[in-house]
Design brief:
This protein has 12 helices and 38 strands. Among the domains are: 88 residues; 268 residues, Rossmann fold (3-Layer(aba) Sandwich). Helix 6 packs across helix 7. By secondary structure, it is α+β, with helices and mostly antiparallel strands. It is globular and about 70 Å long. The strands form 8 sheets. Strands 31-32-34-33-35-36-37-38 form an 8-stranded mixed β-sheet, with helices on both faces. Strands 8-9-10-11-12-13-14 form a 7-stranded antiparallel β-sheet, with no helix packed on it. Strands 3, 4, 5, 6 and 7 form a 5-stranded antiparallel β-sheet that branches. The longest helix is centred in the N-terminal third of the chain and has 19 residues.
Length: 719
């Protein structure tokens, strides 16, 4: 997803696996490439002149989401998509197998407060995450908030936000569909009764409950921008005190956090998503007074947390691969900061505090390594990880005794570990019981040359002993933006694909954070084309090394990854057999005008800038579709509740490609009228959507499903 920094939370997510022997190739071959023509879409050309260039937009009218004409068009498109996918044999069997394997227990990483653990859990027979608490490591689970009764179709979900230091009060959010917006409720843990205080549905950037249980801090975002408020419990939200934010526009993101003792309020100002500049401010709540500047004149990223009487900072200031620094809270001027962990060969991708120690998650060749340091930066130990994979989700307290973290890989389902900080002992706290035979698959990392010669790493997952005959249906995905590191993580889509005999490929594209800030900058603004070149070169390498062929190469991406696959499709349509384009950005000349897209201008640029207009126009997918070109089959996926990436992109691009393609292959739109970009999708809906996406790819790539299904031994592990 497109990155929006938020305060740390305890919410977690687990993806599970499909294992199946599916319908035979002979059955797939009976489905025609196109069973009928798509609904006609009226053309109403709007012409804009940008920097002396006339830009024509034939489907501008589809930007009006609630217009009767648009709603009628959506209804027709969904009916068309349903009729097309409904003609593909095997959907019922496929869905049954997906349902069997997605309906397993899922647990989020716990947060400890006052001897209690707070976490989310979804039982195998449930649709949504439920918020639980537990006394101690092994106490019985107690339900705090169950969202299932809140909506008959289970499109209303809840997310844990924060808990007081004594564990007696929590804040949680209630989300409708897939919106970014939530309503905030406070719950007394002991009585199980909500407080009268409630914040209405809005976009919030974090909530911090004061340890004295007298109030909370939160950032509210509206058309003016981000504003940090203090809400005193028992008062009307309309009377909440403005703490910080005046003068900042809607292109900035403001977040805050409280120190464990409640004394220090740390305020962070991000200059957009994946910001190249971050400001820090501190307020001493015990002494009072306005927040004081810590740093606001350095173009660098600062990620900070409070550790007793010091502030610990991860930064790329004079350190492209990041370093750790410490500041005395009494004298926090950057000139007095002390470097405690210097920049090294690996990238410090994240950090966490727990038990008086510092945990640094290093990425070394895009694989996690976890090192533990003392308060002054003295190396103490390395947490051994079982295989190539990803460490993450660390939860701990500076003055606590315990920490929790996750480990996962493409073929290793998530495991939550408890880490006793004093002894360094690691114990398994929870493991996802998925019927998936990890030992049957091989995960390896290769390197290939991009267009300009840059060496790009790529993870490949497939069955052991794979025959390199150029005939393997292959699913290539990626992201390449916002300093996001794509590391090996368990994925239903990946596991499903390899179980059916396919190859799953994930390259570490420029624009991400896998190799530090220089890698990120090499794929943003005027260098964004590097990301698309890296992705295209991955496809060429897979074909050249006889993993697959163009006819059997599918690509998938969501959000910024939707832009990725949209651009790759527009630039090299002959290279791919099928495309799944989720919640995408596609009209890059107008993206910044909608919803919160102004956060992303530092990453992409804006067509309002004459210099940036030229390079954006050169790659913007919507402006580069050409009539008569033989484009691959495409499934666009979006929904009304996407309040991050406006669904207008998918609507307009669907209409344009249906009119333009000369291949005779389907261009489909799956448009959900209730769900959207963010989390909270019920499992039943996940099953439907995963089934449709897999069915579309199998159909268009001619996947034979010749791999054996899950064996009895693997199946036994799942229960």
């Amino acid at each position: 997803m497109l990155r929006i920094p938020l305060a740390r939370s305890a919410s977690g997510r687990i993806s599970l696996v499909l294992a199946a022997t599916i319908v035979a190739a002979t059955a797939l071959a009976t489905v025609p490439a196109l069973a009928g023509k798509p609904p006609a879409t009226p053309v109403q050309v709007v012409r804009d002149t940008l920097h002396g260039v006339v830009i024509e937009d034939p489907y501008r009218w589809l930007e009006a989401k609630d217009a009767p004409e648009t709603r009628a068009w959506i209804t027709k498109q969904n009916a068309y998509t349903d009729s097309m996918l409904g003609a593909v044999p095997g959907r019922t069997t496929l869905r049954e197998k997906v349902a069997q394997l997605l309906k397993v227990d899922a647990v989020g990483v716990p947060v400890e407060r006052g001897g209690r653990l707070f976490f989310t859990k979804r039982r195998a027979d449930q649709d949504l995450n439920v918020i639980y608490t537990r006394k101690g490591l092994a106490g019985p689970d107690e339900v705090l908030v169950d969202p299932h009764p809140l909506s008959p179709d289970h499109t209303t979900s809840v997310t844990f936000l924060d808990a007081t230091a004594d564990g007696g009060l929590i804040a949680y959010g209630t989300r409708q569909g897939g919106e970014d917006e939530i309503a905030i409720t406070l719950l007394d843990v002991n009585t199980r009764k909500p407080l009268a205080d409630r914040l209405p549905r809005a976009r919030y950037f974090g909530v911090s409950l004061a340890p004295d249980r007298q109030g909370m801090y939160y950032t509210h975002f509206d058309e003016r921008g981000s504003r940090l408020f203090y809400h005193a419990f028992g008062t009307e939200p309309s009377k909440d005190k403005l703490i910080f934010g005046e003068g900042y526009g809607p292109d900035k993101i403001i977040a805050s956090s409280l120190s464990e003792d409640g004394r220090w309020l740390l305020i962070t100002v991000y200059y957009g998503s994946a910001a190249k500049k971050v400001e820090l401010y501190l307020a001493d709540r015990f002494k009072g007074g306005p927040p004081a500047v810590v740093v606001n004149d350095i173009e660098a990223f600062f990620d900070a947390d409070i550790a007793g009487d010091r502030m610990i900072v991860r930064t790329n200031w004079n350190a492209p691969k990041w370093r750790m620094m410490a500041a005395d809270l009494a004298h926090p001027d950057p000139a007095a900061w002390k470097e405690i962990v210097p920049e090294g060969n690996g990238v410090i991708d994240a950090f966490a505090l727990g038990g008086g120690k510092l945990f640094c998650n290093y990425l070394e060749n895009v694989v996690s390594t976890v090192r533990v340091f003392g308060a002054e930066g003295r190396p103490l130990s390395t947490i051994e990880l079982p295989t190539l994979g990803t460490f993450g989700g660390v939860r701990g307290r500076w003055k606590g005794d315990d920490a929790f973290f996750t480990f996962q890989s493409f073929h290793v389902p998530p495991t939550i570990y408890h880490y006793a900080v004093a002894s360094g002992r690691r114990d398994e706290w929870w493991r996802a019981k998925v019927p998936f035979d990890s030992d049957a698959y091989e995960l390896k990392q290769v390197r290939y040359a991009s267009k300009d010669g840059t060496q790009i790493p790529m993870f490949l997952l497939h069955r052991k002993g794979l025959a390199l005959d150029g005939a393997r249906p292959t699913l290539l995905t990626g992201y390449g933006g916002f300093n996001v590191s794509n590391t090996p993580g368990f994925s239903a889509r990946a596991a499903a694909w390899v179980e059916q005999g396919g190859v799953f490929a994930l390259p570490s594209l420029r624009g991400g954070g896998e190799f530090g800030e220089a890698w990120h900058e090499a794929g943003m603004l005027e260098k964004k084309q590097n990301v698309f070149d890296d992705f295209i070169a991955a496809g060429e390498w897979l074909i050249g090394n006889r993993y697959t062929s163009s006819a059997k190469l599918g690509i998938e991406g969501g959000s910024n990854g939707g832009l990725l696959v949209g651009a790759a499709m527009a630039q090299r349509p002959e290279l791919f057999g099928a495309v799944v384009c989720d919640v995408p950005l596609l009209d890059m000349l107008r993206y910044h005008k909608f919803l919160v897209a102004r956060f992303w201008v530092p990453e992409y640029g804006s067509a309002e800038n004459p210099e940036q207009f030229e390079f954006i126009r050169a790659y913007s997918p919507y402006q580069n579709v050409k009539r008569g070109v033989k484009y691959p089959a495409v499934l666009f996926v979006t929904g009304d509740s996407d309040t991050r990436v406006d669904p207008l992109h998918a609507r307009k691009m669907t209409a344009l490609m249906q009119a333009a393609t000369g291949s005779g292959r389907p261009v489909l739109l799956h448009y959900d009228t209730k769900l959207g970009h963010s989390g909270g999708k019920p499992v039943s809906k996940q099953i439907d959507d995963l089934t449709d996406g897999l069915l579309f790819l199998r159909w268009q790539l001619g996947m034979t499903g010749d791999a054996v299904g899950v064996g009895a031994e693997a199946a036994g592990q799942g229960r």
